[in-house]
Model the fold of this input.
Amino acid sequence: MIVSAKESGASFVKFQSFNKETIADSPLRERLEKLILTEEGIKYFKAKADAVSIGFVLTPMFLEAVDVAAEYADLIKIR
Done:
């Protein structure tokens, strides 16, 4: 996805960082649980974005994720 975004001319890729508590009431909870990003996952995607020179944006969906976003993201989207 990151490489495709770069090849399409995008300047940034954006990910959301959420945990089980933030999606507990979602009707899509089971599907979203499979998409939860750990800090290691965020670090991996950031490295991939850097490798193709595309900006990395992260939306932290819970308070503890803000520190992770501050460490790895080029931009932070506040929801």
Remarks:
- The mean pLDDT is 96.
- Residues 3 and 55 are 12 Å apart (CA to CA).
- The longest helix spans residues 39-51.
